[in-house]
Amino acid sequence: MQKNGPIALLFHALVVGFVLAPLVVICLVAFTPENTLTMPTTEFSLRWFRAVFEHPDFVTAFGNSLWLATIAASLSVAIAVPAGLAIDRYRFPGRDALNGLFLSPLIIPHLVLGVAFLRLFALIGATGSFLWLTLSHVIIVTPYVLRLVLAALSGLDRSAEQAALTLGASRFTVFRRVTVPMILPGISGGWLIAFINSFDELTMSIFVTSPATVTLPVRMYMYATESIDPMMAAVSALMIALTAVAMVVLDRVFGLDKILVGEK
User: Fold this and answer.
1) Which PROSITE patterns does this UniProt record tie to the protein (predicted)?
2) 130 CB-near residues (< 8 Å, 6+ apart)
3) pTM value?
């Protein structure tokens, strides 16, 4: 195996530092006792974290985002698993077009999707509905689940499925007892990535939320237009922590290399 030279290692370190530096700064600012966005110098304080949980708008928005992300990720799995099986295992007219249709939200700017959904919901009288907000999130997170499901299926040894069929198991039993456990890392990883993307979604959500369905990123944006104080840093630090914990759990349970890269 060829090892990276010192120049390559230095370049990688600079890239990692460039990515992580803003996250570290915002997390440190969240612990400031001051009223402005400053780094804590003499002491650390949980003042702004308490302020977040005492702010009813942020608590409500967090609940909306949590429910929305959970439902959207679960529905995307329900769509992506059968779609992935069909695309991976069958050859039929329009197969490539179907695959492209499912993955198209990855290349369409969310600003464009937001305007399109806003116009569509206005035409059918569905503006402000949590149901339609959920469906719009399902559309933009399903590609992430589908990609991981397809990756899991592409490396699947079908001999175990064929053995189960030979022994008399029904196709549904084979799917439930053999196929799903074998592709579970891809399904779980896809669900978690879909959850994170739905929870963090801002650009499209601005156009399709209502006062009753405001999500946490939208609430943060609205708050930032009125005032800038360390509470924003505290909310951001909580979101960073939530994402980091989710990725660590996923890595410990299944392994990120296995899910995202496909390593055995």
Assistant:
1) ABC_TM1 (PS50928)
2) 64, 68, 212, 213
3) 0.85
Domain contains 43 = no
Question: Domain residues for 198?
Answer: 56-261
Q: Is residue 199 in some structural domain?
A: yes
Structure confidence by residue, pLDDT tens digits, 162-221: 888 888 888 888 888 888 888 888 888 889 889 989 998 999 999 988 888 899 999 988
The predicted-structure confidence for 118-172, as pLDDT tens digits, reads as follows 888 888 887 778 888 999 999 999 999 999 898 888 877 778 888 888 888 888 8
Domain annotation covers residue 29: no
Whether residue 25 lies inside any domain: the answer is: no
Report residue 111 CA to chain centroid gap.
Answer: 18
